[in-house]
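Figure 6 in text form: structure in, sequence out.
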């Protein structure tokens, strides 16, 4: 007899105490069986229960099948936080199609490189976000890359030659579910040089990531998580993010980065309990609370991660928001560290926590690759059950980014205390090589902000014909009249070595940001070069 049994080919797999039995698309059906009538997603005035989400994902997967998409194909998803983002992602996973998760702020340069590399067959975007028309971007991409057969836009007034997400609907013909060890999705590296690299994550390693992360953040059925940073970012998708919260029966409220006077009332309206912020946003939020008075008492956990944060800012956040703070140090390549909810105050303020799995194998090494003495600073190398050991189709970068033993070179300078807690001191590249003298940007930044008229300082290296690299200080503060000479004098009087005193000074009103809202140092370098010319 012909065996038409479509039961999963998947054998259960256990990672550090968490047993996985289904790929991510199948997990959604389990969640729907457990929590069918509960609200899973909220976006504006729209909401969707777990049961409706499961049905919608099935119909969308069916429509994608009808459009000719099949297992093993790749699709590029560049959607703002919306119900469409979550359904498209899950439909692709259910069908065994691999989504490439791009952020709404990315433009042709980044996307074109990704498409050339991964050859996706379809592109999913919003019709419009914050005044930007994605249709224009879609046309440029499609012109340059004929592999993009299908363009789907989420919104109204979609041009006739493109499909509209809400109109995609057809019965799903179940396929053989992907194996747990199969490629599930491609994330974009947060790399600060060149165009982003693609990070291949499997069903098992990604499911482990969001399930363990949900435990770390105390997520349960009464959790209400607000996603305001892009859902395509690993932090917001899986630490515990959208997937971690759904996996525990919690509710995800979707919004797009907007001003505090929109988001804070939303927290009150939806009784949000969990939220994740990057430090630049946290600073704005703290300032906003001097005039914004929405009732934020529903907040239980404020996660801070993605970039270096001062202990003073974390303390301020505790005082202003009165909630538990969790520092998160992670990377789309894998490793995630958390401060635990019951950690001592000094750990929560001063460290970025410790790895979430005891199977994470980390090593802190000096410039020669030798392990540093306990407590000393060095580069963090990591490997483990959910950390990649190669980028997607990137042989050249792989040799530079991974050691022969399969450790990922994070490029982060960290130290670790006796309890295993990690503090991020900087990036290897956040170092100025000024005529051979190495200067740590963080040290100069800290010295600059001791001046009463300097609120924030960022120091970058700009290429220089004489010095190799020169030190450029970007400054923010109320009075922008402080002469360079006075700043130099201040640093000198405070004991700074002459070679560490910045060569160039510029005052700035807004920090340039990356697609996920981190400080964009590359743009500052470009600015420093422009001002020089
Ligand atoms: C200092 N630097 C940090 C932190 C990340 C959770 C949280 C963050 C990311 C992320 C993520 C930092 N302090 N707390 O994917 O799931 C810097 C490091 C790191 C790089 C990774 C998650 N948290 N960083 O930020 O892939 O330099 O992931 O190597 O975008 O951000 O960036 P990305």
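Output sequence:
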């Amino acid at each position: 007899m012909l065996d038409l049994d479509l039961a999963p080919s998947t054998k259960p797999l256990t990672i550090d105490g968490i047993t996985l039995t289904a790929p991510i698309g199948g997990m959604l059906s389990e969640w729907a069986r457990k929590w069918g009538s509960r609200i899973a997603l909220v976006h504006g005035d729209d909401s969707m229960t777990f049961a409706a989400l499961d049905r919608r994902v099935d119909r969308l997967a069916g429509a994608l099948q009808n459009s000719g998409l099949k297992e093993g194909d790749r699709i590029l998803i560049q959607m703002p936080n919306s119900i469409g983002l979550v359904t498209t992602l899950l439909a692709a996973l259910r069908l065994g199609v691999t989504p490439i998760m791009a952020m709404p702020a990315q433009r042709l340069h980044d996307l074109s490189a990704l498409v050339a590399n991964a050859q996706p067959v379809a592109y999913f975007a919003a019709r419009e976000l914050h005044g930007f028309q994605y249709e224009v971007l879609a046309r440029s991409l499609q012109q340059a890359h004929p592999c993009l057969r299908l363009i789907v836009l989420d919104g109204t007034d979609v041009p006739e030659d493109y499909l509209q997400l809400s109109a995609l609907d057809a019965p799903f013909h179940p396929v053989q579910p992907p194996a747990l060890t199969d490629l599930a999705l491609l994330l974009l590296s947060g790399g600060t040089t060149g165009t982003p690299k693609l990070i291949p994550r499997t069903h098992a390693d990604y499911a482990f990531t969001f399930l363990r992360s949900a435990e770390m953040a105390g997520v349960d059925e009464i959790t209400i998580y607000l996603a305001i940073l892009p859902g395509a970012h690993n932090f917001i998708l899986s630490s515990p993010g959208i997937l971690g919260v759904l996996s525990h029966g919690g509710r995800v409220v979707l919004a797009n980065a907007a001003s505090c006077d929109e988001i804070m009332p939303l927290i009150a309206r939806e009784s949000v309990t969990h939220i994740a912020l990057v430090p630049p946003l946290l600073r704005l939020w703290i300032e906003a609370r001097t005039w914004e008075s929405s009732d934020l008492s529903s907040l239980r956990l404020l996660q801070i991660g993605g970039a270096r944060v001062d202990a003073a800012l974390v303390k301020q956040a505790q005082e202003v928001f009165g909630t538990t703070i969790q520092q998160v140090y992670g990377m789309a390549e894998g490793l995630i560290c958390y401060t635990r909810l019951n950690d001592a105050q000094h750990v929560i303020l001063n460290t970025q926590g410790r790895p979430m799995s005891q199977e994470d194998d980390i090593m802190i090494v000096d410039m020669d690759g030798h392990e540093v003495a306990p407590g000393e600073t060095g580069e963090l190398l990591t490997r483990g059950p959910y950390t990649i050991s190669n980028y997607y189709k990137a042989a050249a970068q792989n040799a530079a980014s991974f050691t022969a033993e399969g450790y990922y070179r994070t490029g982060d300078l960290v130290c670790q205390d006796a309890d295993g807690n990690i503090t991020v001191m900087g990036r290897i590249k956040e170092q100025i090589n000024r005529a051979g003298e190495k200067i740590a940007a963080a040290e100069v930044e800290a010295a600059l902000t001791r001046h009463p008229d300097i609120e924030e300082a960022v120091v970058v290296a700009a290429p220089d014909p004489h010095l190799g690299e020169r030190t450029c200080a970007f400054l923010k503060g109320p009075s922008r009249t402080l002469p360079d000479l006075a700043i130099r004098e201040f640093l000198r009087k405070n004991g700074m070595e002459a070679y560490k005193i910045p060569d160039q000074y510029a005052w700035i009103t807004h920090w340039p940001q990356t697609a996920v809202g981190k400080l964009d140092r590359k743009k500052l370098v470009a600015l420093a070069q422009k001002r020089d010319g």
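Caption detail: The first strand starts at residue 13 and ends at 15.
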